[in-house]
Amino acid sequence: MKKSYRIYQVDSFTRERFTGNPAGVVANADGLSDSMMLKIARELNNSETAFLFPGSEGEYDVHVRFFTPRCEVPICGHATIAANYVRALERGMASGVVIQKTGAGILPVEIQSEDGDYTITMTQGEVEVEEPLPLPVQMEIIEALGIPEEKLRRDCPIAIASTGHSKVMIGITELNLLHSLKPDLAKLTEISSRTSCNGYYVFTLHPEEATLVHGRMFAPAIGIAEDPVTGNANGPLGAYFVTYGLFGTNKEEFSFEAVQGEAIGRMGKISVTVAIKGGKPVKVKITGKAVTAFSTEMEL
Question: Where is the active site (predicted)?
Fold first, then answer.
């Protein structure tokens, strides 16, 4: 028997259509096989598509799975924003907390109702920030990205950070260089096979401005040449800042705003908050707005 599936395209980390980061959302995915979810993700051709399944009473409210056009990933920031935005819209939810099961664990998502619209805050997964990568690997990465060594920030070690889905953090000194990068995607894919990290987040810092971070994220190993606005890059970046003491560690919380997507015409803004205990990051939250680009139904 055929079933009608409710499908949305949502632009996350923005209130303006056709900016921010687009994510597919299948609001009633129960009954879809893994292969069919992958086909739908490939057809929608967003960096990620979220598939919503029913919750389990007493354990979690909703189970969300995330697929790129190439594979399933454990968690995704912008698709979590999109998925919970759609769920809140469909249910006409009031402000509150939703417990979401993901491949990175069971995590809370805060829903803030605002004049008939919603802002979503996602608590990310386990915080892990590694030691700097071996120098030869660092040099391979910056060569593949097209970054001259002298343009690296010396206070920003090239290291992997994760809140459920890891990224390599690369700080550089010039915004113009950030916007002009043309990476060797095949080489980045090959490096990913050796580092077991599929994403590269290149950023500049602007402590004199309201927006601290401007960034770009490349993850060709999982089929994402460039991601417009990445929760699973900016969240780990906050943990990285705390770990490496860039903005002090003698506080209980560190917050900042980041802008991403400028170089590809899909600018969006994300807010990051890092809880700190004993000078170390212990919990990361990201907050974003969203807007529905379109919705449809598909009979399968």
Answer: 48
Closest CA to 238 of 289, 295, 163, 164: 163
Assess contact for 16 and 8: CB atoms under 8 A: no
- Interval 203-247: pLDDT, tens: 999 999 999 999 999 999 998 999 999 999 999 999 999 999 998
Distance CA 245, CA 84 (A): 33
Cβ neighbours of 211 (radius 10 Å): 11
The domains located in the chain, with CATH, are 4-123+289-299 (3.10.310.10), 128-287 (3.10.310.10)
Angle formed at CA 171 by CA 66 and CA 78, multiple of 5 degrees = 20
Q: How far is CA 254 from CA 14, 169, 213, 279, 286, in A?
A: 22, 18, 14, 11, 12
Q: Residues 43, 48, 131, 140: which is the catalytic one?
A: 48
Q: Convert the pLDDT of each residue in 66-110 to its tens digit.
A: 999 999 999 999 999 999 999 999 999 999 999 999 999 999 999
Residues ≥6 apart with Cβ < 8 Å to 112: 95, 118, 119, 120, 121
Helix (H, G, I), strand (E, B) or coil at 142: helix
Q: Check if the beta carbon of residue 141 is closer than 8 Å to that of residue 170.
A: yes
| CA-wise closest residue to 128 among 235, 222, 271 | 235
Spatial distance between the Cα atoms of 236 and 120, rounded to a whole number of angstroms:
18
On whether the CB atoms of residues 128 and 166 are closer than 8 A, the answer is yes
H or E element, residue 76: none
- Total-model pTM: 0.94
Contacts of 35 (CB under 8 A, 6+ apart): none
CB atoms within 10 A of CB 71: 13
Active site residue 190: no
